[in-house]
C-alpha cells in the first residue's frame, strides 16, 4: 500500500487513501467481490473514510457493489489499467462481424470476461425471424457458452482455477458439462483447435461456435461467436468453425501482436474474411 514516511507538502494525503482502497480490492478481491469488513481489516483508515472512498469510486464508475453487498473493481477500472479489453476492439471487430453475418446469416457476438461470466460487448443480429437474440451487456456463464469456453481455455491456470472455484458448473440444459475433470479435458481440446462449441449446452435448441481473440501481448481478451438454431447451425458447422476462427485471427492481427504470440493463420481461412 502507498505510504509516505515524512511530511511532503506536495503529497496529497487523500490519494494514498484512494489507492490504498483500490490496491486492497485488486490484491484481495475476487470475481464476486470483497466484503466491506475485509477491505477495512487491511487498511489503517477509519471505516467512515473507507465508506466515502468506495462511494466516490462507485460514483466515478471504478467500483461496484455486487448483489451480496461485496465491492469489486469494474470493467472501466480494468480498461484503465490495461486489465480489460483494448478500447478500439469493438471498432476493429465490427466489419469482421458484418462479414460473418453476411456469410452465414446468423447472429454474431463479441464477448469478453467480466468477473467470472461472459459479457456481450457487441451483437449483430441475424435477419432471420427465427434467431438467437442477445444484447450488449448481457451476461452468461463461462462453462456453458462457446464464448466463455473460448476465453477460459487460454487463461492462466491460476485465474481459470479461481473462476471455476467461484462459479460452479451448474446444469443449464441436459447437455451442459458439469463434471470438472471432463470439462478441463474439454478445454484442452478447445485450446488445441482454437475453436469452442456450445451444442445446446446453454440453451436447448441453440448451437454456438466461438474463437478467441488476443491482444498485442498474446493475452486472451475476448472472443467471437456465431449462434443460431441448432437445426440451421449443425448442417453448416464445419464452415462456421473455419470462418469464426479466421475472423478471430484477423482481429488479433489487427491489434498488432508480435509474431511470437500472434494467433497462427488458418490455412482454410476464406480470403473475404481475411481481407474484410
Describe this structure in words.
- The chain contains eleven helices and eight strands.
- The chain has helices at 13-28, 36-41, 47-59, 75-81, 89-104, 146-152, 157-166, 180-193, 230-233, 237-254, 271-274; strands at 63-65, 71-73, 107-114, 117-124, 139-141, 196-199, 206-214, 220-229.
- Strands 5-4-3-8-7-6 form a six-stranded antiparallel sheet, sandwiched between helices. A two-stranded antiparallel ribbon has the order 1-2.
- Strand 6 and strand 7 form a beta hairpin.
- The chain is elongated, with a radius of gyration of 21 Å.
Give start-end ranges of low-pLDDT stretches. Answer: 257-276
Assembly category:
single chain
* Structural domains: how many: 2
Quickly name the level 1 CATH class of the largest domain: Alpha Beta
Helix content: 40-55%
Structural class from helices and strands?
A: alpha+beta
Task: Tell me the span between the first and last alpha carbons.
Answer: 47 Å
Named at the architecture level, the CATH assignment of the largest domain is: 2-Layer Sandwich
Estimate what percentage of residues fall within beta strands. Answer: 15-25%
CATH topology title of the largest domain: Beta-Lactamase
Shape: elongated
Per DSSP, the total helix count is: 11
pLDDT averaged over residues: 85
Q: Mind telling me the CATH superfamily name of the largest domain?
A: GAF domain
Q: Biggest sheet: strands, sense, closure? A: 6 strands, antiparallel
The helix-strand sequence is: HHHEEHHEEEHHHEEEHHH
Strands of the largest sheet, in order across it?
A: 5-4-3-8-7-6
How many β strands by DSSP? 8
**Cα-atom Rg, whole angstroms?**
21 Å
